[in-house]
């Protein structure tokens, strides 16, 4: 079974980053494929025990929230496709700082997800650049609420290669607070 294959991969792999990815795949299998949310939560609990502090724990919890129907907002990603952003309403789930996560999967073809956290209600720009620094697309721009957000990038319209994506965020309530982060991604055809 797929669960058995994932479990064997987890047991035989010491790399924490790869373990996080395997755990995320297992959460998706239980939640999306089998509608077994209790088992998906158990996998996340196991991940917290085995690789505490991993970014994959938070992302898995957000994925699970989407599958179970927590509040979801629809945004546009600048490439003509819909994308999904998630904002939790519980204070314990609202981030206190900003961050731009590594896209997943990476490398990808043709779609990938980009997660970012906003520590305050902010005006953001999320842009895609080619390896020479030329702007390809603005994937998101506008006022976004404090919380977690996910965009799905559909790259059908661009060629294979290395790209960077850049998040610029400025707090609406305190314009002196700003955040900029850049990450790389690889599109393979």
Report on this model:
The structure is a single chain. This protein has 189 residues and is of the alpha+beta class. Helices cover 30% and strands 36% of the residues. The chain is built from 4 helices and 9 strands. It has helices at residues 2-11, 16-33, 37-50, 55-68, and strands at residues 72-76, 82-86, 99-100, 111-118, 122-130, 135-144, 147-154, 161-171, 178-187. The strands form 3 sheets. It has a 4-stranded antiparallel β-sheet, with no helix packed on it. Strands 3-4-7 form a 3-stranded antiparallel β-sheet, with no helix packed on it. A hairpin with a 4-residue loop joins β5 and β6. The longest helix is centred in the first third of the chain and has 18 residues, at 16-33. The chain is globular. The two termini are 29 Å apart. The model is unreliable at 71-93 (pLDDT under 50).
Uncertain ranges: 71-93
Helix-strand category = alpha+beta
Q: How would you classify the quaternary structure?
A: single chain
Total number of beta strands? 9
Separate helix tally:
4
């Amino acid at each position: 079974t797929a669960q058995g294959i994932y479990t064997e991969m987890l047991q035989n792999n010491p790399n924490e980053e790869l373990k996080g990815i395997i755990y995320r795949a297992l959460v998706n299998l239980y939640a999306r494929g089998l509608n077994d949310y209790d088992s998906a939560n158990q996998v996340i609990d196991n991940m917290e025990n085995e690789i505490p502090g991993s970014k994959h724990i938070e992302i898995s919890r957000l994925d699970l929230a989407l599958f179970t129907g927590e509040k979801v907002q629809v945004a546009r990603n600048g490439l003509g496709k819909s994308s999904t952003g998630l904002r939790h309403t519980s204070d314990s789930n609202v981030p206190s700082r900003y961050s731009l996560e590594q896209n997943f999967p990476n490398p990808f073809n043709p779609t990938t997800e980009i997660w970012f956290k906003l520590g305050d209600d902010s005006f953001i720009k999320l842009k895609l650049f080619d390896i020479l620094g030329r702007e390809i697309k603005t994937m998101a721009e506008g006022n976004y609420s404090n919380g977690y957000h996910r965009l799905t990038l559909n790259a059908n319209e661009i060629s294979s290669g290395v790209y960077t994506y850049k998040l610029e965020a400025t707090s609406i309530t305190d314009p002196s607070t700003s955040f900029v982060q850049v990450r790389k991604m690889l599109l393979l055809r």
